Amino acid sequence: AVLLSGSLVGLLLPLPCAVFFLSDRWASCGTCGRPLHIWVLVHCLLHFLQSPLRLMLLRRLRRHTGGGAALQEKVRRLTSSRAWRVSTGLSTAAYAWFVVGVVWVLSADSCRPCPDLYSLSLGVMG
């Protein structure tokens, strides 16, 4: 369930971000006290990049038909795969970047030239 929900979030999260970045409001957001527009962009990108890896891992797990020792061996092979290592690295980067975003949101005002950015930042955190 975690792999599936994480994959779906990673695929859907970039949609509101893309709408925002393609709008005319993007330029005015560079004047805010914190670079929240860059934070949102990187945050969405990190989640988007994780989605194919998570879906691949989920597909490999669902293909398993055995039980017991065979399942244990399957999990051992999955956790030693390149896709698992890349996904773990991206997850670690996403969590660290999330902490940066929380600090920036807590220390930023609502950014008068770009109030939608503050709301978008809070929305993608939620």
Describe the model:
- The protein is mainly alpha-helical.
- Helix 1 packs across helix 3 (36-62), helix 3 (36-62) packs antiparallel against helix 5 (82-107) and helix 3 packs parallel to helix 6 (115-125).
- It is elongated and about 60 Å long.
- The protein has 6 helices and no strands.
- It has helices at residues 2-12, 14-22, 36-62, 69-79, 82-107, 115-125.
- The model has no long low-confidence stretch (mean pLDDT 78).
- The relative contact order is 0.19.
- The two termini are 18 Å apart.
Write the layout of secondary structure elements.
Elements: H1 2-12, H2 14-22, H3 36-62, H4 69-79, H5 82-107, H6 115-125
SS elements, strand count: 0
Write down the Rg: 18 Å
Counting helices, strands and paired strands, the structural category is mainly alpha
Taken from the alpha-carbon principal axes, the silhouette is: elongated
Tally of helical runs: 6
How do the helices and strands follow one another from N- to C-terminus?
Answer: HHHHHH
Mean pLDDT: 78
Helical residue percent?
over 70%
Percentage of residues in DSSP E strands: under 5%
The biggest beta sheet is recorded as: none
End-to-end CA span: 18 Å
Stretches where pLDDT is under 50 for at least 5 consecutive residues are none
Provide keyphrases for this structure:
single chain; 126 residues; mainly alpha; 6 helices; 0% strand; elongated
